[in-house]
Amino acid sequence: MNFCSQCAHPLVFQIPHGDDRPRYLCEACGAIHYQNPRIIAGTLPVWQDQVLLCKRAIHPRLGYWTLPAGFMENGETLREAAARETWEEAHAKVEVGEIYTLTSIPHINQVQILYLANLSAPEYSAGPESLEVELFREEQIPWNELAFPTIRNALRFYFADRRQGHFPLRHVDFDRS
Ligand SMILES: [Zn+2]
């Protein structure tokens, strides 16, 4: 961040009076431009014994498989964000269930929340951010071609929990490295 979004003056990066960490400050108008973690919402969409994955058409990790998820927008609920991302990336309608994985990723300032979801029908297709969308049985999951560690975790949890028949909330804190 280089310039003030309120008055266009160049910003400095300093600890404001009474604060404990540096912020982007505007010395012209006094605005403090706080930056806070962003929320990624998505689903783990299930149809019978299969899970829906999307092959990414965008960077980062273009060509790798992921679960539908993306940045929450202002004015929507977390559940709406998860369903919207599933529609946008996979053109799939889902019944959004319980929150399943909650992951803090402090080194990139994100919190990722994935819901368990059921496909309303085995109907889906690639949205603009996906190259392909497919249903996978456990033995078909492309474990070496998954886009992110959070996705690998969610799928590992899911198939292990499915054998147990219950799906406790999986709350993971990633290391800061
Ligand atoms: Zn300013």
UniProtKB/TrEMBL annotation:
<dbReference type="InterPro" id="IPR000086">
    <property type="entry name" value="NUDIX_hydrolase_dom"/>
</dbReference>
<dbReference type="Pfam" id="PF14803">
    <property type="entry name" value="Zn_ribbon_Nudix"/>
</dbReference>
<dbReference type="Pfam" id="PF00293">
    <property type="entry name" value="NUDIX"/>
</dbReference>
<dbReference type="InterPro" id="IPR020084">
    <property type="entry name" value="NUDIX_hydrolase_CS"/>
</dbReference>
<keyword id="KW-0378">Hydrolase</keyword>
<feature type="domain" description="Nudix hydrolase">
    <location>
        <begin position="22"/>
        <end position="159"/>
    </location>
</feature>
<dbReference type="InterPro" id="IPR015797">
    <property type="entry name" value="NUDIX_hydrolase-like_dom_sf"/>
</dbReference>
<protein>
    <submittedName>
        <fullName>NUDIX hydrolase</fullName>
        <ecNumber>3.6.-.-</ecNumber>
    </submittedName>
</protein>
<dbReference type="InterPro" id="IPR029401">
    <property type="entry name" value="Nudix_N"/>
</dbReference>
<dbReference type="GO" id="GO:0016787">
    <property type="term" value="F:hydrolase activity"/>
</dbReference>
